Amino acid sequence: MRQAGRHFLQIPGPSAVPDRILSAIGRQTIDHRGPDFAEVGLKALNGMKSIFKTEQHVFIYPSSGTGAWEAALVNTMSPGDKVLMFETGHFATLWNKMATKLGIRTEFLEGDWRGGAEPDRIEARLREDTNQEIKAVCVVHNETSTGSVSPIADVRRAIDAAGHPALLMVDTISGLASIDFRFDEWGVDVCVSGSQKGLMLPPGLSFNAVSERAMKMAERATMPRSYWDWHDMVGPNETGYFPYTPGTNLLYGLNEAIDMLHEEGLDNVFARHARHGAATRAAVRAWGLEVLCARQGQESGVLTAVLMPRGHSADAFRATTLQHYDISLGNGLSKVADKVFRIGHLGDFNDLMLMATLSGVEMGLAKAGVPHESGGVQAAMEHLKDNPQARVAAE
Amino acid sequence: MRQAGRHFLQIPGPSAVPDRILSAIGRQTIDHRGPDFAEVGLKALNGMKSIFKTEQHVFIYPSSGTGAWEAALVNTMSPGDKVLMFETGHFATLWNKMATKLGIRTEFLEGDWRGGAEPDRIEARLREDTNQEIKAVCVVHNETSTGSVSPIADVRRAIDAAGHPALLMVDTISGLASIDFRFDEWGVDVCVSGSQKGLMLPPGLSFNAVSERAMKMAERATMPRSYWDWHDMVGPNETGYFPYTPGTNLLYGLNEAIDMLHEEGLDNVFARHARHGAATRAAVRAWGLEVLCARQGQESGVLTAVLMPRGHSADAFRATTLQHYDISLGNGLSKVADKVFRIGHLGDFNDLMLMATLSGVEMGLAKAGVPHESGGVQAAMEHLKDNPQARVAAE
Amino acid sequence: MRQAGRHFLQIPGPSAVPDRILSAIGRQTIDHRGPDFAEVGLKALNGMKSIFKTEQHVFIYPSSGTGAWEAALVNTMSPGDKVLMFETGHFATLWNKMATKLGIRTEFLEGDWRGGAEPDRIEARLREDTNQEIKAVCVVHNETSTGSVSPIADVRRAIDAAGHPALLMVDTISGLASIDFRFDEWGVDVCVSGSQKGLMLPPGLSFNAVSERAMKMAERATMPRSYWDWHDMVGPNETGYFPYTPGTNLLYGLNEAIDMLHEEGLDNVFARHARHGAATRAAVRAWGLEVLCARQGQESGVLTAVLMPRGHSADAFRATTLQHYDISLGNGLSKVADKVFRIGHLGDFNDLMLMATLSGVEMGLAKAGVPHESGGVQAAMEHLKDNPQARVAAE
Amino acid sequence: MRQAGRHFLQIPGPSAVPDRILSAIGRQTIDHRGPDFAEVGLKALNGMKSIFKTEQHVFIYPSSGTGAWEAALVNTMSPGDKVLMFETGHFATLWNKMATKLGIRTEFLEGDWRGGAEPDRIEARLREDTNQEIKAVCVVHNETSTGSVSPIADVRRAIDAAGHPALLMVDTISGLASIDFRFDEWGVDVCVSGSQKGLMLPPGLSFNAVSERAMKMAERATMPRSYWDWHDMVGPNETGYFPYTPGTNLLYGLNEAIDMLHEEGLDNVFARHARHGAATRAAVRAWGLEVLCARQGQESGVLTAVLMPRGHSADAFRATTLQHYDISLGNGLSKVADKVFRIGHLGDFNDLMLMATLSGVEMGLAKAGVPHESGGVQAAMEHLKDNPQARVAAE
């Protein structure tokens, strides 16, 4: 039986794709070697530099974000190299597993999944690494499984304070274009991202931003690689082309997304997400529930992970909510499976969509018999009313 | 500066067009005289019979709903004929003006804009019309300017009770496919509707449903007519064609809409609208505001018109709400201009969209400095939680 | 069983709708009373003035072109008024019938369907009309049933030469935006057009261009009218709005079409059509068939009507061609039913699409067993090669 | 200045994407972990089995076809393993380079780029490989750079005749869904394909079909791999899910493509391509030019590569043709750069589109001053007329 109205896709990515982007993706494919393609390619490559805030290198892959993780590793590492990773949550763990699988030695600083990476522990570990075995420090910027944000600039400072030459590699698959990220200013060396989060696209494109230093390191790295090889990209990219067939239609959408982000203004985008995150946490508190991220100032503007009351299944709650209110919420992953649900408030999103989302959660909690106080929706609305977004002029 | 997220189009029509229908409308136009068109035309014509609940005649015009008003009049009337109309609100008034303009004499039973047409007054007037000058009784089913519903079956009973031969002509432009309507069972003779309300299409198609009796009357009616002439339509329609170029792409959309309505089940569609109307009224009461429709049982499931507190401008409120919360609300028309705003809850709409809508109203009231109690959103949510929609099997 | 590849819609309208326009039409409907609509409305109204080449009035109806015929008549005429019409073909005949049906007296100058209207015969008739009973001269600019073009400027000169005050009313439903038309310069008073031909839209919008003189005449005209009334339009149109719900989504498409026409340059558009008409006639001659239009210089750039060899059914040929080569050709209408087929070469069309079209005709002639010489495709190709289009800078 | 009409994208892939598929791709993205996704995933995975004609394994990657080349190698090989490849043209050469780059030893049987792989030479080489160093034989099914087809079933017979255990790995990126391919019947072990050719999609999805034997070999293969790992896919694929975020919107398109292919019938699709290849070659002969593929029976139905007369630049010709006739033709690659141009006649294509394409070539040859006979278009048309496609009932 058909359900009326729009589905609310409030997982922490893919985010709902705006009509402008869907329409762009639906345009006819063109010759990726023809003269008209150059404009498409250059706009995408240069546009992504403006999003990463870098004047160094950006590479675009037809792949999921997982592919860009692999690209970051195989371009910079040689078999047996060691990397230091920080366990912010499920995705940090997956990246760690991937590195191991590819034959890289990893050291995984244990975390409690309730905050971002800890720069002081990274610094301490690097100071111990006197023979500089560690080739890269890998952290997740916005940990999609927990809703916590790592202080990337502080991680760079920690590496520098330790006087260690390790690269700084950052996964900002779910953070980019939703929360502040500054590749050059923060001294990041390799960055990994994907299309289906803040960029508001369907999945299928992934990105590396790469520093000159990492490009140099890639020249000496001996991991076997072909599809992901940065150096094969550089030449064709200069004129807007790619070494193999690019994902033309998703690039159409990407160019639209880049325009939309600049039309709104990146700082407005970031402020919008932060404000929606705060309103969501106000709702969670009013419901008498607990936000998974326990470190103040590290709560994500992209998503909010919420702990279920003991004895209640998050997945049963999500199923009820989907069935009765046509809203998809994110599930808890591995360690927190069935114990948390995640509310995505990223992408092309506004106050009323947030109110719809939180109403779905509040009605779902009631429908599923989860103990809670009512009033979360009201609390979020008060927050929004009391904290109007100050908009700055777009770029 | 770009606003993020979806616009909420909560005027009482056009309603937001679902993606399935937009996609259908975007298909390539075909030869409207070719063999493939027959299927398109027959599906639309027969489908609309299922929506009107009639086995008599349905005609489809490429025009706005206003055109179908004119069609109803020029097909059945001769210059100087008299019709009896009921002033339910702005749209009844406009139809009345049109009739006058076309050279038809009208008698307009005065109403207070706070309820539907009154069968007893109609009956009384018809009893006085002993020489049967009145050729038709014209009432608006769902008065879009006030949010009141006329009891159509009772109007038919009133005409019959008076033993009067007048036709029953009904405007259900904004009622059809949102609230119950039964052309044959209720003994309606001519019905007027449009595409951009419950049918979830963009504007541009309009409809007449016509009884055999009205078809007969049309044979003797002498108003000049060509574009709107029913009798020119009958022949081509039999095989799915039209006497002049039809609105092919909107017909694609119409066929998709008909499918969607039957996939949900018309009774479920009606129950959904009724429930959303009730939840909206719960919100209005909680805000301490007044619903324009004052007659219990006649409140519309399509829209709710809300009276502003004295001294406050409805249009200023609507402008504020549009600017800050990206939601379009309906304005007050003529007699109630600037005194009421209208909340549309029609078309492809669900619980969370309603919650978004009411949140936009509540936050807008605060932002515009309109005196009100907070808690309307909460009250609506309680109503929705306490009154889950019982869904019946779709046709 | 699915046929592969694109269908070729080569009837003389609707023409195949370009993707840019389909995409525009598929955008979300907005509030036609809201602030954002003004831009849509003004762009459409002013844009259509640039297409009609007028600084006087343009009106846009949600209706088929047939509606705009009716609008032209009911706004300017009073019951019993007389108009002079010229029988260029089927559509002139239909307009004549409509006028009669609406209670207007018509005089129909007989034609042979093989050329445009004849200014000298019109002048002669007007000279006879000493008491100026004739209120308007009505001619079809591009007669879609025959592929002949009437010399509109010469008709104006004929009226003036006769010193007659009759209005000049012109149907350019299929001519506008494909062949030269100059409302103001040519002294036209009322013009009728539609969306689905040179404007490259689906059917559903129609247009009147109206001179100040005709606007004046409308003030005194007493035909009953409401939907079509020009004077109700003037006020709202000034700020980009309409007196009743406009066909918003088709207006999106119209605005895209207007942009496309100016991007190409109207003179380039006209030259393109003329060249394709000439190439098509070269093909017809090579096939040993006859073009219906027998008056040199009046052959249409929009379509070419071709006479079948005696004893052969045009409709059987068209059915064969549709079945085997997935191309829709236009049928012969009324007097020439089954005797001619029509090749549409209008709208968003280029050299290779023409070659495809003519190949479909040539292969279809063979498949249907119609006597002909081969070589038409070759002849058209030679024409195109030998007569490259000189393109002028777009506006 | 805008060019009117449709662009003809006649490179040998991407092929022009049909509207049905563009529309499917433009649908809203859904939760790839939610209950509704299973249907999407299962339909794609099972559908692709029906296209490959296999009951073994199919894997779908969000990547270009190049990625699926890499996947085929890294799943089956260990560092230092040897493969035997056949130089059919540019793409065989690129695959060879990739293998080398990944640390696989390759032996490359030299070819003249004018035909498919030669089974007898493969057999001879395998017979010499007495200690079975060669782990796989890699051939390109349809060599996109030359328009030649390799006899895959004969290659399998050659391997078997040599009694050699090497895997048979086949690149059918541009052959699949355009020319006959039978994974199971022909004994292929690993197959590589992509979305933007016979599957009529934009680029961005790639495929491996894999035999049980190759799956077993993958268990022992030690090339580092993660993104491409087949074994990670098997579990999630069983219920329609993927181990990482899939390319949801391209999967929507893929499912539409699979439906379209079966609606037409794969055998009809293959016959259509073969017939268009033959008609194209008839045109080339009539022009007095030479088809690059010199081996009778191995000419491709997907594309035809044409040798330029000595001293004439293929790229200058292609640029002229693009500028004047808005058609993109394929360029010559590496060894035959600027010496051949390639006519794509693949994907969603029909007789009239072919006639348009060949007209573009013939007019372009004249415009670019390339010596040739006219009459190619005529010859192709004669071929099509004389050889109507016998259609069999679709599956």
Automatic annotation (TrEMBL), chains A, B, C, D:
The EC designation for this entry is 1.12.-.-
Per its Swiss-Prot or TrEMBL entry, what cofactor is needed? pyridoxal 5'-phosphate
Q: Which Pfam families match?
A: Aminotran_5
Instruction: Report keywords, A-Z.
Output: Oxidoreductase, Pyridoxal phosphate
Major enzyme class: oxidoreductase
The Swiss-Prot or TrEMBL record annotates one GO molecular function as: alanine-glyoxylate transaminase activity
Q: Which GO terms describe its biological process?
A: glycine biosynthetic process, by transamination of glyoxylate
Any idea which positions bind substrate?
R342
Q: N6-(pyridoxal phosphate)lysine is carried by which residues?
A: K197
Name the InterPro entries for this protein: Aminotrans_V_dom, PyrdxlP-dep_Trfase, PyrdxlP-dep_Trfase_major, PyrdxlP-dep_Trfase_small, SP_NH2Trfase/AEP_transaminase
Q: Tell me the domain of life.
A: Bacteria
For the Aminotransferase class V domain, which residue ranges apply? 33-332
Q: Which PANTHER family match?
A: ALANINE--GLYOXYLATE AMINOTRANSFERASE, AMINOTRANSFERASE CLASS V
Q: Which family does it belong to?
A: Belongs to the class-V pyridoxal-phosphate-dependent aminotransferase family.
Q: What is this protein called?
A: Soluble hydrogenase 42 kDa subunit
Name its species.
Jannaschia aquimarina
